[in-house]
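[Q] Does anyone have a clean structure-token version of this?
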Amino acid sequence: MGCRFIAVWLCLGFLPPSTAAAEIIDRILAVVEREIITLSDVNGAMRFGLVDIPRDIEPNQATLDRLIERRLTLTEVERYAPPEPAAAMVDAAVEARRARFADSALFEAALASSGLTADQLRRYLRDDLRIETYLQQRFGAALQPTEAELILYYRDHPAEFTRGAELRQPWHRLHVRNRFFSVVGGAPYRILASRDADADVYRSVGRTMRIGDLAQHTIGTSSNLAANVLLGFVGVDWARARLSAAGMSGVDLVRGVEDDRAYESGISNRMTANGLVALLRAIFEGQFASPAHTSDMIEILCGQRFNSGIPAGLPPNVRAVARVAHKTGEISTVTHDGGLVFLPGRPPYVLAVLTEMPGDTSNRFERIATVSERVFAGIADAGAAQTSLRP
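[A] Here you go.
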């Protein structure tokens, strides 16, 4: 899949009883690559600020998610065996953590209350340095070109990406990373698996995935991580330029998903119902890609797994033969669905329904299904004479 394609797509343990008084020494919260993550690990990470956690989410689960992601990254680090960090660098990292406390006594007390030893803290910080070295060596983290620089190079050196007279697709696979940068101040942030609708992509962190597979996860199961990996590849500015070139209005893409710092600053992606209709129509009309890739895009939209909105509003006999290429979304009290509805014997129609429902959201898609039902009834009553795509 090419850049144009991507631009459009744009989350225990317990001890057995004993006849003597039992004391829980620690608790296993997760097992990752045969390595355990304990309650002490989580407490220590929070107490010593070893992970960055947004202020508006539950810290224990968020910290556990970060430690799981870190453990998966360390598995890749072990495979590539980067050079051991200098002892002086580890010493400096330890001193930086010690400096968070007024004196050594408070530092030691914090270690004890967190269930950590000084050696465990030192090993953690040493592994952080190993991860940084691995990222630098393997992906050039410090000198990595920006998305804009990559695109400019691609445009300025077409011969390097050409086979015969045909432009071949660059970068068939993308590195899956869970580290992104806020549009406000460039602060790093991550996507938490606990807040994502699709956890499958997290298994590939530190590895690569096909662009098409990332697109399927972005659309089919609303994977925030997959969406950010794709957007990070093409860049927000380039994606906005493509939307502008297609004459899109009512679609304002300004940042990646889960950029909490941007959200707190009032910077959010926005879309109107008319904007979503125009976007879907542009996809159908092939304004973003070649005929083959346009077909691929529609097939991915048809692979949507959440079908309680527009598809549910179609009569059962129609639903059995219809194809609905759509994308759902929900957050807080907001729910939406927009798609192309393909029916046998007639051109498709496009429908976008954006709703906000205060209070109980357990039946959030019912209203969308009701609107879909009424729209289909109106189209059916109008007969089969319609010969052009109409919103």
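[Q] Thanks! Anything notable?
[A] The first strand starts at residue 28 and ends at 32.
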